[in-house]
Description:
disulfide bond; Whib; iron-sulfur; 40% helix; metal-binding; mainly alpha
Amino acid sequence: MHTETIPSPDLAWQEEALCAQTGGDFFFPEPGSSVREAKRICGLCPIRGACLEYALAHDMRFGVWGGMSEKERLELRRAGR
């Protein structure tokens, strides 16, 4: 029996994300690796804002989300957004 996974409405934006088309390696690099390429791709992504909001709302601690690294998101949270 084949069942299709139906995306959750709050995750539907991910289908349009450029990262979904390029693979996760850029967005979850090894510690100390550059996130420059991930940020470049995020900068071109039409749903970057939704991605960042999701990461902040769900306290995503790893990877590049919405064009921001873990450290940048932490600083944004501390500043009160």
